[in-house]
Design a protein that fits this description.
The complex is a heterodimer of chains A (about 90) and B (about 375). Chain A is α+β, with helices and mostly antiparallel strands. Chain A has three helices and five strands. In chain A, a hairpin with a 4-residue loop joins strand 2 and strand 3. Chain B contains 14 helices and nine strands. Classes of the chains: A alpha+beta (about 90), B alpha/beta (about 375). Chains A and B meet through strand 2 of A and strand 5 of B.
Amino acid sequence: MAPPEDSSQPRLAAGCRWGGTEQDRVILFPEGAIKLQGTGRQVLEHCDGQRSFGQIIAELQAQFADADPTKIRADISQFLEQLRHKRIVDY
Amino acid sequence: MIPNPLALIAEITHRCPLHCVYCSNPLEMAAVSSELSTTQWIDVFQQAGKLGVLHAHFTGGEPLARPDLTELIAGARVAGLYTNLITSGIGLTETRLNALVDAGLDHIQLSFQDSREDSANWIAGAKAHAHKIELSRLIRLYKVAFTVNLVIHRQNIDHLDEMISFIEQLAPERMEIAHTQYYGWALKNRAALLPSRVQLDKAVEAVAAADQRLAGRIRVDFVVPDYYARFPKACMGGWGRRLMLVNPAGKVLPCHAAEVIPGLTFENVRDRTLDDIWQHSPSFQRFRGEDWMPEPCRSCDQRAQDFGGCRCQAMLLTGNADATDPACSLAPAHNIVEAALIEANSTATVSQPTAASSFVQLQYRAENLWSYRTNPE
């Protein structure tokens, strides 16, 4: 399994969708739910199947201009790869 | 303040076309005449949504035996719940599948008994295997998530590799390889179902290899047999902590086997609200938290992880629902589980289990499949 390529369009995998309340947003999947806060939530809100991975990275790098852009890329890449393993994200 | 429940197990009927030898359903079933009506179920889903429940797991019996299943799924979706249909597939036609998906069905979990047709049909006590394969193809044509569930045991575990390849061809998003849990029929048939240590170790390797190979395509979940674990399973994520089960007659239980525990009475959604039952039912309170715990649980570091294990298993094996789950290596009654393991490892013989033979037909439900669980170590 590989990390997302810049041209790929990350999205929630089949059977996964947003739920919960505005304060407590969760991603629902067949056997459970994960609660997402802070940047994890922001990353996944960008994964709409429209934006490319490259675009998502660029947008979040711009938004978090204080953080190291290489680190942002590496962290998001790893985060999405882990969620793909769990079949919560596809790209 | 008690945190709200996260999942509702909607056991909408006990009718089932299969008679699986490993069925863990209660041996005493709710009669068809006592089943809740469509309106009553929809009201239950509304209440659950308001309580903060996220998932409705439709099970039984075979949920498709209810002709109003589509309306029930739609009702649960309207109430804001994630809808999961746990099924044998018997009774599912394309027309019906289409209607269910239109009604907002999020996920289908289809159970298989084996990769080999003869064995699968024999285990299920019905000629269901070919239909399930056909159905898997059909499911992939619709916009609904798909999990294949396979229950493994002494009878089929030796060809797990073959079964995993078989499931791979059905192209689900997820496969769940679950060891039999010893309740109901499965407990009666335990000697014929409990694998040996050698069989188990081989299965663990097969699953790990599949997880690597299928990463990114198919998620592989594995439920290990608690008999071989050091610590017990966190049954239902803890008694009265995460889940509520409503049975076909409207009785509200902390888990599907809870009726084996003497002295508990269960409230009914016909008389009380879900919220009221969750907060105040003496049965939900009975093993909630740590006050009920005996030693060695009470002072154990694991107690916040496994909550003392399964109350129903403690009852079934020791006759005392307050005992530490005998699956725990620290339990005073662990010798009961050890004796079963010695028997399972003393002979390579695979004896024949008795098919679940009931006129109210049975279908597999292992109580720890309903999410928010962690495997025992």
